[in-house]
Amino acid sequence: MRIISGQFKGRRIMPPKKLPVRPTTDMAKEAIFNILNNLYYFDEISVLDLFAGTGSISFEFASRGTENITSVDENFGCIKFINNTADEFQMPIRTVKSDVFKFLETTKLKSDVIFVDPPYAYSLDEFSKIPELVFQNDLLDDEGLLIVEHAEQMDLSHLPYFSYFKKYGSSLFSFFEKIE
Predict the structure, then answer these.
(1) What is the rounded CA–CA span in Å between residue 55 and residue 46?
(2) Residue 6 and residue 115: Cα distance in Å, rounded?
(3) Which positions, given as ranges, span the membrane (predicted)?
């Protein structure tokens, strides 16, 4: 796993093999950040990384200058790895060890970008609950974007606030935003 761009461009990050994760591929990560680069100034936004896993997405935002990043994962090993790596690189990443659904039900944290990478084995109901909780609890800023990574077999286009999707390899990224 490597950081694509920014202050730590090219740095390799080696998470422990025992973590229960499926990191976003470098190709997909680069494509997503090319989209985001055209929408936001990274040093002016807040980011919520749900099902953070190895922290790859959080590290990418931090490398590009984002200073308000919260990473949520329920696995202690993932949280520990994110904390250790963030400390090593002096990245401003705050971690929360929590079940993501419980976190979304209780947090008041609003963000410009919410990136969600749940297990691909989740059911449609579980995937559907994520945007439902984000918008029901008003966790996305007005010009914000919710990005949900999922397998290409999962179709989220029928959900409220769905905007569009992009396909990279065998992954789909569904984009949700507030519609005026």
Answers:
(1) 15
(2) 19
(3) none
Alpha helices in 38-111 (DSSP H): 56-63, 76-89, 100-106
Q: Which domains does the chain carry?
A: 43-176 (3.40.50.150)
Handedness of CA 157, 153, 30, 115 (dihedral sign): positive
pLDDT in tens, the chain (180 residues): 889 999 999 898 888 788 878 777 888 889 999 999 999 999 999 999 999 999 999 999 999 999 999 999 999 999 999 999 999 999 999 999 999 999 999 999 999 999 999 998 899 999 999 999 999 999 999 999 999 999 888 999 999 999 999 998 888 999 999 976
Distances (CA, A) of 153 to 28, 98, 165, 170, 175: 17, 27, 13, 9, 16
Q: How many CA atoms lie within 13 A of 4 on its CB side?
A: 18
Would you give the end-to-end CA distance of the chain in angstroms?
38
Instruction: Name the pairing type of β-strands 140-151 and 162-168.
Output: unpaired
Q: Spell out the residues 6+ positions from residue 79 whose beta carbon is closer than 8 angstroms to its own.
A: 71, 73, 95, 96, 97
Strand locations in the chain, DSSP E? Answer: 46-50, 68-73, 93-97, 111-116, 140-151, 162-168, 171-176
Q: Is 39 helix (H, G, I), strand (E, B) or coil?
A: coil
